[in-house]
UniProtKB/TrEMBL annotation:
<dbReference type="GO" id="GO:0006000">
    <property type="term" value="P:fructose metabolic process"/>
</dbReference>
<keyword id="KW-0808">Transferase</keyword>
<dbReference type="Pfam" id="PF00294">
    <property type="entry name" value="PfkB"/>
</dbReference>
<dbReference type="InterPro" id="IPR050306">
    <property type="entry name" value="PfkB_Carbo_kinase"/>
</dbReference>
<dbReference type="InterPro" id="IPR029056">
    <property type="entry name" value="Ribokinase-like"/>
</dbReference>
<protein>
    <recommendedName>
        <fullName>Carbohydrate kinase PfkB domain-containing protein</fullName>
    </recommendedName>
</protein>
<dbReference type="InterPro" id="IPR011611">
    <property type="entry name" value="PfkB_dom"/>
</dbReference>
<dbReference type="GO" id="GO:0005524">
    <property type="term" value="F:ATP binding"/>
</dbReference>
<dbReference type="GO" id="GO:0008865">
    <property type="term" value="F:fructokinase activity"/>
</dbReference>
<keyword id="KW-0418">Kinase</keyword>
<feature type="domain" description="Carbohydrate kinase PfkB">
    <location>
        <begin position="5"/>
        <end position="310"/>
    </location>
</feature>
<dbReference type="InterPro" id="IPR002173">
    <property type="entry name" value="Carboh/pur_kinase_PfkB_CS"/>
</dbReference>
<comment type="similarity">
    <text>Belongs to the carbohydrate kinase PfkB family.</text>
</comment>
<keyword id="KW-0067">ATP-binding</keyword>
<keyword id="KW-0547">Nucleotide-binding</keyword>
<dbReference type="InterPro" id="IPR002139">
    <property type="entry name" value="Ribo/fructo_kinase"/>
</dbReference>
């Protein structure tokens, strides 16, 4: 058995993306409505790659929630465990800056927080599944408690556990609680994704290489660290050390860069049938192939406006690599 489908759990929300570059949110004159939310983006990114994908979470029983359900359905995401609740769909206002975008969230609390055990009681978890989620879902109950129990179920069932830190401080009353939650989950992750800022935050280090070495020593699986223009780095405690440079492209909107990258990684693993057991056996050369493909998918994504609706297909990514001379 090996990985065949990806289950992304957490928030689906609306990104209102600034139509102007490098302008503070308070001065932005206009926004474009885009479907988003990191786990929902990953679910769509995986589906766009031709891999079975499911989104698990709650949206509001409101125009935005129904819009998100329809968009994900059109992209081919299984919505069997996507639920509507009375709370409103969360909104994010996004300023497009050079480097990482700035966010302002409207979520008091949002519908995504309301995921209950009963919503996931029939969710199938086995050795052919990957459960993917982020730190945002650990900030508030009931979703935090639901997720913790689901991670235990996933590990007992042999599913691959993928954790993207994706820290949004505004979701947390106390960042010490965020740090504890992130460390709790990274200790159970087969695949851990962080960016540069999250890497330094988790370890307390100031140097990326020292921080990555420190983090790898605490994680049972493989660590992926995204470094923006510096590319992506994969490390494992057994000595695996692979770094792939970023593709040079004009950045239109970096909102979905990390989501597109991890979606592509999970898609390649699923296409190759690499589940929890096989992940630790991937060679340096195999990881180079995976990361080159994922980096290309991220490059395509940041060249478009939006996150979910900017996800690349498998064919687009292959064509990008061919054009770049990196088959």
């Amino acid at each position: 058995m090996g990985l065949r489908r990806v289950i992304a759990l957490g928030e689906a929300l609306i990104d209102f993306s600034a139509l102007e570059d490098n302008v503070p949110l308070r001065e932005v004159a206009g926004f474009a409505r885009n479907p988003g939310g990191a786990p929902a983006n990953v679910a769509v990114g995986v589906a766009r790659m031709g891999v079975a994908s499911q989104f698990v979470g709650c949206v509001g029983d409101d125009p935005f929630g129904h819009y998100l359900i329809e968009v994900m359905r059109v992209y081919g995401v299984d919505g069997t465990h996507t639920h509507t609740v009375a709370e409103q769909t969360s909104l994010a206002f996004v300023a497009r800056n050079e480097g990482d975008p700035d966010f302002f969230f409207v979520r008091h609390p949002g519908a995504d927080v309301m995921l209950l055990d009963e919503h996931v009681a029939e969710l199938a978890l086995d050795e052919e599944a990957c459960l993917h989620f982020g730190t945002n879902s650990l900030a508030e109950d009931p979703i935090a408690s639901t997720l913790r129990r689901l991670v235990t179920r996933a590990r007992e069932a042999g599913a691959l556990v993928s954790f993207d830190v994706n820290l949004r401080p505004v979701f947390w009353r106390d960042l010490r609680a965020a740090l504890a939650a992130a460390r709790e989950m990274m200790a159970q992750a087969d695949l851990l994704k962080v960016n540069r800022a999250e890497l330094l935050w988790l370890t307390g280090e100031q140097d990326v290489e020292r921080a990555l070495s420190a983090l790898v020593a605490q994680v049972p699986g493989t660590v992926l660290c995204t470094l923006g223009e510096g590319g992506v780095w994969a490390r494992r405690a057994d000595g695996l050390d692979v770094r792939v440079t970023a593709n040079r492209v004009a950045c239109v909107d970096a909102t979905g860069a990390g989501d597109s990258l991890i979606a592509a990684v999970l898609s390649v693993l699923a296409r190759r049938g690499v589940g929890r057991t096989g992940l630790g056996e991937l060679s340096r050369g195999e990881w180079e192939e995976v990361l080159r493909f994922a980096s290309a998918a991220a490059a395509i994504n940041i060249g478009r406006l939006g996150a979910m609706n900017a996800m690349a297909t498998y064919a687009e990514t292959e064509a990008f690599l061919q054009a770049a001379g990196k088959p």
